[in-house]
TrEMBL record:
InterPro entries xrefs: PIG-V/Gpi18
Region described as Disordered: 1-40
Intracellular or extracellular location(s): Endoplasmic reticulum membrane
Keyword field: Endoplasmic reticulum, Glycosyltransferase, GPI-anchor biosynthesis, Membrane, Transferase, Transmembrane, Transmembrane helix
Polar residues biased stretches: 18-29
The protein, known as: Integral membrane protein
Pathway listed: Glycolipid biosynthesis; glycosylphosphatidylinositol-anchor biosynthesis
Regions crossing the membrane: 49-72, 136-160, 211-242, 254-273, 313-335, 342-360, 366-382, 389-409
Its membrane topology: Multi-pass membrane protein
Amino acid sequence: MKTSTTTAIGAHRIPAQAQHSAPAATTTHPPDGTPRAPAKTTWPHRAWYAAWPALAVYATSAVLHLVLLAAMSPPGAPGVHDKLLSWDGDLYRSIAQNGYPDSFTHDASGKLVGNNLAFFPAYPALIRTVHALTGLGYGTAALVAAHLAMIAALVAVHLLVSRLYDRRTATVATILLACAQPMALAFLMAYSESLFLALAAATLVAAHRKAWLTAGTFALLTGLARPAAAAVAAALVAAVVLHLMRERRVTWRPLAAIALACAGTPAYLWWVGRRLHQTDAWFTIQQAGWDTRWDNGSSFWHFLGYAFTEADGWVPVSTAVLLLALIVATALAWQRGTWPPLLIYGTAILVLTLGQSNYYHSKLRLVVPALIFLIPLARALSHARPRTTVIVLTAASLFGSWYGAYMLTSWQYAI
């Protein structure tokens, strides 16, 4: 007797073999062809799927930067550990270990000079937390804190770019961010750049998800990391405005996010003013120690003229060329339909850096968290042939890592 190969269910007939063909979990593909996570997985699997590209980029960048830094250090010079704690890194360590001064600082002649109150408290607080949890010395704790923040930053950036584009573009962008930028080494030093980027990127991810209170909280913390958090607040305001225009109704959570985003930096500036009994105390310290003030970009234009006509050595010229390239890349991002809050964040970081009178040899470090000028190249490489992508990323990563190592081992001024 021949067995029927179909089963009747009401008016429909389903092939018997099809009754057993549905898998328990499937992998879906978006229009760009990039595979997504399996539809049915546990939380740890989803977390690993989201994080592993960023972790791989972190490991690669750390090895590349640190090996080149060690190889390029002259015999008898301070070791890699000390190099990573140099300049501002030692000041952050001092704040974590000893706290802030309670007065203005003057030199032997009585002239006002800068002091540690110029540095915002979020990164020293993270250093102190790592020290308390691990028992490590404050210097090593500062480096561990920076590396942990760097991992968080890369995960957040990868998640953000994946949401805006696709995973391949996100992976390329994180490689450019961590390896190819000329001063990406700062992310691994005892500097606040990695923590600032982690908090800023987390703010943008939360805003894109419309998790407004989370976005506001991250923006508040960003405001306690660096004064450039004004760029993060502006980006969050843009995200809220776009949301309210779409929804055509006002709710309290987006407005609360804006209030939180605008509170961090003013709170610290107020605290410094109250501590020193002078409202503009932070600005006074900043100008006395680093001659940092808003000058509408006049110092930058003067630097460009100096770099291309009078400068002795290749560092000023390369700095000028690279900064001009970043401006061009940012302009390209404005023409490519980039998410407006990301555009505003990155452009504001660039404007704040170029519009102030800070040292020209620090500007490439100050713009490393901006992201926006990396997007056009990341999108182009994500659609290029794999061989082309690998060659370009390898060459760019070697150049960026070498540049940072040179500035830390051979350049005589602060970065």
